[in-house]
Specification:
Distance between the termini: 82 Å
Low-confidence stretches: 7-27
Structural class: alpha/beta
Order of helices and strands: HHHHHEEEEEEEEEE
Shape: globular
Strand order of the largest sheet: 1-4-10-9
Number of helices: 5
CATH architecture of the largest domain: Sandwich
Mean pLDDT: 76
Number of strands: 10
Helix content: 25-40%
Number of domains: 2
CATH superfamily of the largest domain: Cupredoxins -  blue copper proteins
Largest sheet: 4 strands, mixed
């Protein structure tokens, strides 16, 4: 049996090592002002995730952690550009999240590095969709027009690839025009029968 002082020392050393290896970002998650934001629905989600079957658990865990985030570069021609990779055998977009600094045109070059599976990309574009076929070890280009701020999802529609982690997000930053805000004046409605 370990003396209580030794157990306390081991716990303190483990906590210090955890903070040192994880950096300040993880330590900030334990602050009271962050913890009080954990609502019952968030707590249910966090408690539920370990119960998800192994493939989905792995997908949820790696989707954003491994896929990462990038900011589209605004070119002199006003077009924003970024590159997306599909690493071999991983069923994930890299980056998973693309941030556009403003609404507009986004050109994406997508490279399928997978030597075992073909993929495709189904992208949003002004209420329409862009489809990009990506045979094994190939590249393609998609030009999207996202003219309003918001969140836009993209996925691989092949088999169940989106269920295995091939979901991504494009975040378009900027202000919503006054005429498009939800608190705008009541709009005229069609006459009833």
């Amino acid at each position: 049996m370990c003396p209580p002082g030794r157990v306390l020392l081991a716990v303190l050393l483990a906590a210090m090592l955890s903070v040192a290896s994880g950096g300040c970002t993880y330590a900030r998650l334990a602050r009271p002002e962050v913890l009080k934001q954990v609502t019952p629905p968030v707590a249910r989600m966090v408690n539920y995730l370990p119960e998800v079957d192994r493939p989905n658990e792995a997908m949820i865990a790696k989707m954003f952690a491994l896929g990462g985030l990038s900011h589209a570069e605004l070119g002199d021609d006003g077009v924003m550009r970024d590159r997306v990779r599909i690493p071999s055998g991983q069923f994930i977009w890299t980056p998973t999240i693309i941030v556009m600094p403003q609404p507009g045109e986004l050109e994406l070059v997508v490279t399928n590095e997978d030597e075992f599976s073909h993929h495709a990309a189904y992208f949003p574009s002004n209420g329409d969709r862009q489809y990009l076929h990506l045979p094994m070890q190939s590249s393609g280009r998609a030009v999207l027009n996202l003219d309003g701020p918001g969140y836009y999802w993209f996925a691989c529609p092949v088999a169940n690839h989106e269920g295995r982690g091939m979901l991504g997000l494009i975040i378009v930053e900027g202000d919503v025009p006054v005429t498009a805000r939800l608190d705008r004046p009541t709009q005229p409605q069609p006459e009833g029968d």
